Amino acid sequence: MSTSVYALNLFNIVSKEEYLAYAKRSVKEVKSHHGRVIALGKHHESVAGDLSPRQVFILVEWASKEAFDSYCNDPALADLHPHRENGTKDYIWQLFEKTEDLRPFFN
Q1: Tell me: the pLDDT tens digits for 38-48?
Q2: First to last CA, the chain
Q3: Which of 24, 25, 27, 64 is least enclosed, having the fewest CB within 10 Å?
Q4: Are residues 12 and 55 in contact, defined by beta-carbon separation less than 8 angstroms?
Q5: Model's pTM, two decimal places?
Q6: Radius of gyration (Cα) for the chain, nearest Å?
């Protein structure tokens, strides 16, 4: 049974034009690969931690790891991903599994 995964995206914009070329098309493509944007926002303040702040965060829920991989590896999107890469810097992209409680961390 596949479980959903959450992709946390943190990044800075270096080219508004490049990133907009990605963002405008990616909304439809993410949805067609069984993903949905849960939240997005801009940096407000750093409260704790040693990671340098990023301007933007996006949290995407994917139906499964396979759905995420299909988005990343779809040959029809080969021309799309370079817009994200060229429009951003300091990109952090991490996948998380949903858990109902913290017990898995203590077993």
Answers
A1: 999 999 998 99
A2: 21
A3: 24
A4: yes
A5: 0.89
A6: 15
